[in-house]
Amino acid sequence: MNTVHVVVPAGIDDPARPSGGNIYDRRMCRELAAGGWTVVEHAVPGAWPVPDDSCAAALAAVLGGLPRGATVLLDGLLAPCVRDPTALAARLALVLLVHMVPRPRNDGGTAGSARSGTSGATRGLPNEVLAAAAAVVATSPWARSRRVAAFDVHERRVHVVEPGVDGAPPAPGTASGGRLLCVAVVTPTKGLDILLEALSGVAGLDWDCTCAGALDMEPAFAADMLRKVRNGVLAGRVHFPGPRNGAALDALYATADVLLLASREESYGMAMAEALVRGIPVIAPRVGGVPGTLGRTASGTVPGIVVAPEDPEALAGAVRAWLGDGALRRRLRAAALERRTELLARSWEAAAGRLAGVLSGAAPARAARERPGDG
Asked: Looking at per-residue confidence, does 212 or 366 come out higher?
């Protein structure tokens, strides 16, 4: 029987901290086990997603306790804390699961971390860890292309395993299209400041927006967003209920007309897939994996509106067009429903099957790289 040791940050099941990366980790563990794998999970304690000095020691203790030759799936959030990756790769068949490709740190600390939107030491993906891994798993084709281009990783070692999608009934929508929804942690990376500025530009129109996501990842930033809503033209129009999971999140999608995203970075965008599988169009910036996840119908129609990144006026213009044009709403809803049919075929079980293939090849890949002439 195949065995994989999955090393993740502690807290991936915390309902107060939902994230695409956490959901991906949990579902893959579950589906691999259902597919016959022995999954041994190791939760590394520490101040994730912004590690303190104790995190490297905690991770070293976990990795040091694994049996020689073990196949290990390591969440990329932990990668900056890996000590001596070359020695680690000599002992273990390491598969690095990276949910996000960080952009260069030239924003003075604004952009935040890849996984959660918090700034700090998790930004970098050390080249040494990437080079040591027998295989690297990317969660979107865009992330794969960026990883091959930006880091010294041979393209043969980078594999795409996109998230799965759970089925859900189509959302009925409203005649006016004014039920706006954003599902994102309240951080700069997710662009909540951009979103609020855009919504301020359409404050004279008839709409209501719910922003569902954790408020405690960057408390100062979240407090500033709440203050802007409370004291400005968005008072009573924008709601921050905090994180939502399960039935509570399903209920938000069921009453939504359109999903709004304003992310500065996005590797895949699981909220988009969750919206589209319910036939809900998406308005989002052209960043990272957004265009790929949004996709097109067979006729070439995009099931939403893609705007320039970090451009509140462009985002406001898209919302204005959505609210003011009933024919546009009908066309985009039809496209989203067509896209829904395609996405329903992307099960988590199938995704785990692709990941299992990568894991099965990790030990042979590690052995091949140790032979002279192999890369």
From this structure: 212
> To the nearest 10°, the Cα dihedral for 238, 242, 243, 249?
-50
Residue pointed to by tokens 């462009």 = 314
Task: Residue 266: name the closest of 297, 302, 310 by CA.
Answer: 310
- The answer to whether the CB of 336 falls within 8 A of the CB of 276 is yes
CA distance 89 to 84: 9
Examine the domain organization and report whether 19 and 160 are in the same domain: yes
Q: What is the DSSP letter of 109?
A: T
pLDDT digit string (tens) for 166-224? 999 999 999 999 999 999 999 999 999 999 999 999 999 999 999 999 998 899 999 99
User: Which pair of tokens denotes residue 201?
Assistant: 């530009």
How far apart are the C-alpha atoms of 140 and 12, rounded to whole Å? 21
In this prediction, residues 44-53 reach a mean pLDDT of: 78
List strands edge to edge, sheet with 258-260: 238-242, 208-212, 179-183, 258-260, 282-285, 304-307
Are 111 and 208 within one domain? no
> What domain range includes position 121?
3-164+347-369
Q: Confirm whether pTM is higher than 0.90.
A: no
- What's the pLDDT band for 18 if we cut at 50, 70, 90? confident
- CB atoms closer than 10 angstroms to residue 31: 21
Q: Are strands 71-75 and 93-98 parallel, antiparallel or unpaired?
A: parallel
Tell me the CATH number at 304.
Answer: 3.40.50.2000
Give start and end residues of each alpha helix (H) in the chain.
20-34, 53-64, 85-91, 127-132, 141-150, 192-200, 219-231, 246-254, 270-276, 290-294, 312-324, 326-343, 348-360, 362-369
**Residues contacting residue 301 through CB under 8 Å, at least 6 positions apart:** 331, 332, 334, 335, 338
